[in-house]
Design a protein that fits this description.
It contains two helices and four strands, in the order E-H-E-E-H-E. By secondary structure, the protein is of the alpha+beta class. It is elongated, with a radius of gyration of 15 Å.
């Protein structure tokens, strides 16, 4: 997914628009996780970037996308660019203490 979302729409409350953008991103990630994995892989990894536009987008973890969008809203941005690329990966066991 590579998309630029507007954060302000006429006739809509800005906070509701931001929550709708976050909801669309969550739905996309859930949909990608449901896809079947290629043989030999155990999970989907996501390479994510977010920013006010394509040139200024920076890498962030998938669980940090909401915080990145909130930072853009706090800075007074009118749109946000989000890029999410799913890649198959292998789950590593949790370290034992």
């Amino acid at each position: 997914m590579q998309k630029t979302f507007p954060l302000q729409l006429p006739g809509r409350v800005d906070a509701r628009v931001v929550e709708a953008v976050k909801g669309d991103i969550r739905k996309y990630v859930k949909r990608e996780r449901r896809k079947s994995l290629p043989e030999g892989f155990t999970q989907w990894n996501f390479a994510c970037r977010a920013g006010p536009d394509t040139a200024a987008a920076v890498s962030c973890p998938v669980d940090g996308l909401s915080a990145a969008i909130d930072a853009i809203v706090q800075a007074g941005g009118t749109s946000v660019y989000v890029e999410i690329m799913a890649q198959p990966g292998i789950r590593e066991p949790a370290p034992r203490p």
